[in-house]
Design a protein that fits this description.
Length: 49
């Protein structure tokens, strides 16, 4: 039983690590706009006045 829990814990730790990397990448992508990427200005979306 302890071995099973230890294995599950290791698998969950790896999943968490992968999800954290995915979140970091998605946050980086969200922060991109035409000023700091190669996208044209219309990709920024609409700015409210």
């Amino acid at each position: 039983m302890v071995k099973s829990l230890t294995d599950s814990n290791a698998a969950l730790a790896e999943t968490i690590k992968q999800l954290q990397e995915t979140i970091k990448e998605l946050q980086w992508q969200m922060n991109q706009n035409s000023q700091n990427s190669s996208n044209p200005p219309f990709c920024n979306g609409f700015n409210k006045l």
